[in-house]
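Render Anti-sigma factor antagonist in 3D.
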Amino acid sequence: MDLILTDRADSVWGRISGDLDISTSPCLRRRLVAALEPPRVGLVLDLSEVTFMDASALGALMAARQRSLTIGGDGIRLSAPSRPVLRLLNAAGLQDRFPPIIIPAQRAAAEPAT
């Protein structure tokens, strides 16, 4: 797992790549929860390069989401979640708890050429 976090005005933006499993989830949980301190109460995660994700990693995301909500944020928004991430969120019935966010570069790539 590789995790890069960047502080913004009222949120933390992160990019995660690699496998998210029982061996990486404790570190993921610690780093995400610790990053959420007022005034940074929201979390936006780019998960496009996550190659595997298990339930322990989902637990880490849920802990970070709860931390965000507890300190007045709106939880976690996902940017371009990979297929393994979407598969797990859908199987767990939690896709609605992690709403998507479209970054302008993604919007341009998704729009058909005219």
